[in-house]
Specification:
Distance between the termini: 27 Å
Oligomer: single chain
Strand content: under 5%
Number of helices: 9
Length: about 260
Amino acid sequence: MQSRSLNAFMTRAAARAPLNSSPLIRFLTERDMIVAAASGQEVGQQLGDWLNFRQAIALHSLLGEAPTQLSVPSRRAPAMGREALREHVRQVRAALEQSIGIGAAQGSGLSRIDMPQIEWGDPVDPTTVFEPYRRFIAAHQRQMAAVISTLRAQVRSQLSALPALHALAALDAQFEKILQEREAQLLGKVAKLMEKRFVQAMKKQLQNQTDARDKQQLPAAQAPNTPHWLATFQQTLRSALLAELDTRLQPTLGLLEAFNPEIPS
């Protein structure tokens, strides 16, 4: 479950990210940005801890209904074959990947979010300098959340048209509603982790330049931004967003795997 993996943000224990954890958790763990937490709780127990009273009642009520009574979206999209639906998901994913990697393509319907061009001041405040990157991350996260929520609803609508998958579609809709706030809180920590990495790299660069000037190896007026370290950070930032994209897509891809028009009624 997506939120189970993201819950590793909440605790810090000496453990490696398991192979079945989310792509984002594995990415952050492999780069020593977090320490993966191994939970001894079962999924059901963890989920119970996350739900408030009203959410628990709504979920219990849903699970207690007969399959033919489960609520589904009132409007259903025109029926699509499995391969057509899979291709649609692939195209949406590719558009989001391009938006993160090099900027949204013209005509994709996505807003273009460009990597910040930093102008350095003197003295340099790492927190202030990072602010454009914080906005860059937030803009991509908002875009991913909006696009993937729509995509997930589209796939869910296709599933709801099949009696055998009607219940799964309704259950997914309820889980999305229940867990979206917690998911947003946990994914919001990505910016803080990236800021920490940015500040560490920048302070190291500034110290190296100070040491070099003390040894008279650099002119005093040299600017503090070194293309190599900044380019490395920007690539890490893009990779983190791509890993987050893969994590956000997991529920949709799970629904897609369940979709089979040949399932008997």
